[in-house]
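Moderator note: this is an archived Q&A kept for reference. The question asked for a predicted structure of one protein chain; the sequence and the answer are reproduced below.
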Amino acid sequence: MLQVLKSIQFLRFIAATLVVFTHSMDNAKYNISDSTTPTMHYVSHFGKSGVHIFFVISGFIMIYTSFGGSAQFDSSKFFLRRLIRIYPIYWIYAAAYILLREIVSGGYQSIWAVFGSLLLIPGYSSIIIGQGWTLSYEVYFYICFSFFMMLGLFSGLLVMTLFFLASIAVGLIFHFDNSGLHVFTDSLLVEFLFGAWIAYFFILDKRLSSSLSNALIVLALALFVISIPLGYNRLPTVLTWGVPSALLIAGSVFKERGGNLPSFVRRCSFLGDSSYSLYLLHILLTALLLRGFLAIFPSPESGYFVFCLVLTGLCIAISAVMYELIERRVVRALQTMIGKFQGS
């Protein structure tokens, strides 16, 4: 049985928290507009880097879980497992968003757009849950992965890398305006490759010294910090945030392999379990929590930053409960059911 990497779980939590804090600041800005400044708004949007950490982690996890054990890779089983992991929970939480939208503003004008969003079709996936656009990339990556990995680990990874790079080159040449086509040619696909290649060397039992692992982590953090004063929006995010994400994950997993993972990372790694629920629910939660806050304090004049930290903490706590009540149980039940069906 594969070992659960606590460093990956911890980084999943950090990535989700960064995104949540950014959206908490955004939601508060629109409701408490006098309490923010352009500088605060710019710095808070650094939290979008969490999406790039997620993408690299996704690439890593796909290789690690598919080829890190003794079982032979099965394309259909892999794809079915990933669909079970992504869609049912997304649909359950999307239903809550749809219900709230129906109550507040009378629902959506196009049923076809809602249907496309529920299927996570590129161009429509952000209509119900704003951050659903990232799941379109995930699903596309799963499709490509399940197809190319039938060639074997190294050959499949190499061909998939060449395919993604060729697709990105086509996008750079023809500049597609269609948001759906953009998913298939976006440089963000490189971030999945970063994670996949890190996992490739990881499962080959390659090792890095503790000092080198620490150096990669320090360099990653330095690059993240430097991107703020340099202007993280001036360069492609695959460079400003994708490369540091890859360095951070590489340093962390090899550091864990060497048995040098900090104790606080091990203790907090369980929070990564609920990162998917946190990622999907936090927009809804911040909207509801803000309404409650403003009902009690109609004109807040200070403590904006601290308030957003509290808002983020509440989202984390509520999502952890929702994970235990809904996500974990639903996913486990579906996996058991599919396991019995495949075994019959």
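Archived answer notes: The chain has one domain: 6-343.
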